[in-house]
User: What shape does this take?
Amino acid sequence: MIIFDTLSELESYLPALKNLINVITLLDRSIPYKDKAGVYSCPENKDVTYSVDNLLTSSKGVEFTIPEGRKGVIVTLEGEQIVSDLNHEKVFILSEGRFLALSEGTYRRGISVNLPIDIKDVIFII
Assistant: This one.
């Protein structure tokens, strides 16, 4: 499962993604935007965790994994990055105002679109 859309459409995916309401609530309250880099639990649902990160994009990016049986939602809070599967068969330009929902597996993020830039992103595990 892959969903790539704008944050304004996030609510329309509530039936398809369990615990997405917690992601919406955290984003509406701007909590990940204010958080420093680190791993956090959702105050309303301890099954939902999220990781905020600041990084410099590069040509290789950084691997991240969505655990087995879970879904991930990645949002670029500041800047723009490319997110892809490991084989670069599925590639998404993730800029502010967009999200990418992914099934379990290993992916790459923080790949530079043009020149390396500093970005801030959040990955929710739901």
